[in-house]
Amino acid sequence: MRNLLLIVAILYSFVLSGCGYNTLQATDEQIKASWAEVLNQYKRRADLVPNLVNTVKGFASQEKDVLLGVTNARSRVGGIQATPELINDAEAFAKFQNAQGELSSALSRLLVVVENYPELKSDANFRDLQAQLEGTENRITVARNRYIKAVQEYNIVVRSFPSNLTAMLFGFQTKPSFTVENEQDISIAPKVDFNVPDPTAK
Q: Strand ranges (DSSP E) for the chain?
C-alpha cells in the first residue's frame, strides 16, 4: 500500500510540474561538455611542463629540487585516470583536484626561481612557454568556472522537488565540484632566499 501511494505521488508530481527528466538530461550533458573542456586545458598545461622544465634546466640546472618537484607533480597528475566517470565519484574527484593543485604549486615555485635568472627570463623559448602557460592557466580558470556553474545547475535540479523524485527513480545523483579550500595557500608562491652567506667573506 505504501509503495502504491508513493507511485501515485510521483505520478501526480509529474502531472503538476513535469518530471524534470529532460532538464536532468540537459544539465548532465552540459556537465560532461564542461568537464571535457577542463580536462583539455589541464592536459594542455601538462604537455607544456616537459619543455618548460628542460628550458629552465638549461639555465638553472642547480635548481634540482624545484625541477624535480614539477616533474613529480606532473607525474602524479598523469597517474590519475581522468575518465568521464570520475565526476560521479567525490573521492576520486578530490584526488584529481589535489593532484592538479600540487602541480599548480610546483609551477609557482618554478616561476619564483626563474626570477633569479635574468638570462633565462630573456630567453625567447622560455618567454614563449611562459606566455603559453599563462594563457592556459586563464583558460583553466574559465573552464573550471563553467564546470562549477553546470554542476550547480544540475545539483539544484537533482535536489529540487519534484525533479528529485525523477532523479531518485532514474539514479541521478549530485556531482562533486571544485572547491576553493586550500587554493589560496596553493597560489601563494614560497619565499626563495638565494642570499647565502659566502663562507670566505670577511
A: none
Q: Whole-angstrom Cα distance, residue 150 to residue 170? A: 20
CA dist 180 and 7 (Å) reads: 41
Q: What is the pLDDT of residues 72-110, one digit of tens each?
A: 999 999 998 888 788 999 999 999 999 999 999 999 999
CATH number, domain 24-187: 1.20.1440.20
| Domain ranges, ordered by start, for the chain | 24-187
Residue 31 has pLDDT above 80, yes or no: yes
Neighbours of 45 (CB within 10 A): 21
Cell for 128? Answer: 614563449
Residue bearing cell 598545461: 45
For residue 181, give the DSSP letter: T
- Tell the residue number behind the cell numbers 628542460, with chain if given: 54
> What distance in Å separates the CA atoms of residue 63 and residue 54, rounded to the nearest whole number?
12
- Cα–Cα distance, 113 to 104 (Å, whole number): 15
C-alpha span between 154 and 37 (Å, rounded): 17
| Dihedral angle, C-alpha 33, 37, 40, 44, nearest 10 ° | 170
Please give the Cα distance from 138 to 16 (Å, whole number).
44
